[in-house]
Design brief:
Shape: globular
CATH architecture of the largest domain: 3-Layer(aba) Sandwich
């Protein structure tokens, strides 16, 4: 690969590094410029980054991180324990960690925590409640220089400690980066990265094929045939799940039999073929099969309309059921086509839909956050954290922004157990129990993930996109 690499994405946007985002394009930029205590490895599990090691006390409340010696920000200032302490305390603030409709996400987990720097290479975090999955939060806790992070203009010229440093930008069009020769992970083979925003997948594919770019992500698989033989391409799926949230607080979906019936009636591969032209992966549970604790792709995803009709009859809807559906016009962009296709699939079991469309996507998110949906609504589910999904969306005691009335005492007990379980393998098994329990008593209607293709110039058969669908530029050959 050339010393200057041009990367094409569907969007390029520099946001506050500690915003709560699961957008893969945004994360690719942030992770090129910034580091956290840990980062995700190829399989999505955590590996050392700024912290070379860490321990968790038996009470699952006290974390101790040992930083790599000699760390520095791009401007030469020291990245020591005090700088890391500042960065984590910044995550506690109510104005940090906002996402669409849900402010201060990180504060849910770090509120009241005591952060200390007993020596220049040691950082300790003592949480109020046991939080054995705290790395799921800290992976987004990018280290920021205390003297710059909150200054005006920081986002116009961000300073981090990542493998690449910021050089310049044309807003929403181009971002330029240069290699950081002092990066803790070693110098990169690329001297410069140039990121371009090219919204159309076909145009991104064509640019790589003709040599005007070396990397393109989120390509539609339909554009793969135009890639030349000198291009390496890798199919991957976006872990963000396309789902329908169900109003379990009142109405038909307060009955678990109706929730189960709907999940059994759906033919996911047919929906994917109909709505996405086949560019999707069926979703077998409440999280993807690369999430911690998820079982392998279930084999019983075949629709079972007979059992669905039986369950509806037992719930008192043997003569039919009319459901109100809230639907946005974008995010996901196929929401309306999906709802029409779902209506066709549910008609044979006696279920019909009345669709309520909302064009204002922010208002739509606020409607969901305020628990003012009809019976169901088109939505998506992220992040790449089984723990966070359970806590923020399923735990009835938390009543998070995207919780819609569901309650499962057994799953909440498992969540409490997992929070106290220090051993990662044992905790993963507990999450797996939750996964299986939520397949039998679904909180929402899981459907699919989008499938994309990444392309890079040259023959690199061992190269893969990371399991979370984020381009990790430190893995570019």
């Amino acid at each position: 690969m050339t010393s200057t690499v041009t990367i094409l994405q569907s969007r390029i946007e520099l946001v506050d590094p500690q915003d709560c985002t699961d957008n893969s394009d945004t994360l690719a930029l942030l992770e090129a410029l910034f580091d956290a205590l840990v980062r995700r490895g190829p399989d999505g599990r955590f590996i050392p980054a700024l912290a070379e090691s860490w321990t968790l006390a038996e009470d699952a409340c006290r974390w101790t991180f040992r930083l790599r010696p000699g760390l520095r920000f791009h401007d030469g200032s020291p990245l020591d324990a005090d700088a890391m302490k500042y960065s984590i305390e910044r995550m506690q603030r109510p104005d940090i960690g906002a996402t669409l409709g849900a402010p201060a996400v990180w504060g849910q987990y770090l509120g009241g925590a005591r952060i200390a720097a007993p020596d220049p290479l040691t950082v300790t975090i003592e949480t109020v409640e046991p939080t054995a999955d705290l790395l799921d939060i800290l992976v987004s806790g990018y280290a920021l220089p205390p003297h710059l992070a909150d200054s005006p203009g920081f986002l116009q010229h961000p300073v981090g400690s990542g493998a690449f440093r910021f050089e310049g930008a044309e807003p929403e069009r181009e971002i330029r980066m240069a290699a950081n020769p002092d990066w803790w992970g070693g110098a990169r083979p690329q001297d410069h990265l140039i990121w371009h925003c090219v919204p159309l997948s076909e145009a991104r594919a064509e640019a790589v094929t003709t040599g005007r770019a070396q990397v393109a992500t989120r390509l539609s698989p339909a554009d793969t045939p135009q890639l030349g033989q000198a291009i390496t391409h890798h199919d991957y799926f976006d872990p963000t799940a396309i789902i329908y949230l169900l109003n379990a607080a009142s109405g038909p979906f307060s009955d678990p039999r109706v929730r189960r019936a709907i999940t059994l009636a759906v033919d996911r591969p047919a929906l994917i073929a109909d709505v996405l032209g086949g560019a999707g992966t069926p979703l077998g549970g409440f999280v993807s099969n690369v999430h911690v604790g998820a079982a392998p792709q279930p084999q019983d995803l075949e629709p079972d309309p007979a059992t669905a009709r039986t369950l509806l009859a037992e719930a008192g809807y043997g003569d039919g059921l009319v459901l109100g559906v809230d639907c946005p016009t974008r995010l996901p962009d196929e929401a309306q086509a999906l709802t029409n296709a779902l209506a066709r699939q549910l008609a044979p079991i006696g279920v019909s839909l009345i669709v309520h469309t909302t064009e204002d996507r922010v208002a739509y998110a606020e409607q969901i956050r305020d628990k003012k949906i009809h019976d169901m609504c088109v939505f998506d589910s992220s992040p790449m954290s089984t723990f966070r999904v359970l806590y923020e969306k399923i735990d009835s005691r938390v009543r998070g922004s995207w919780w819609e009335g569901y309650r499962n005492d057994a799953v909440e007990s498992l969540l409490d157990h997992s929070r106290r379980t220090v051993d990662p393998a044992a905790r993963e098994d507990i999450h797996r129990q939750s996964y299986m329990a939520l397949r039998q008593d679904p909180p929402w209607l899981p459907l699919y993930h989008h499938r994309f293709t990444a392309a890079i110039a040259g023959d690199h058969p061992k190269w893969r996109m990371r399991a979370d669908g984020v381009l990790d530029v430190t893995t570019l050959p």
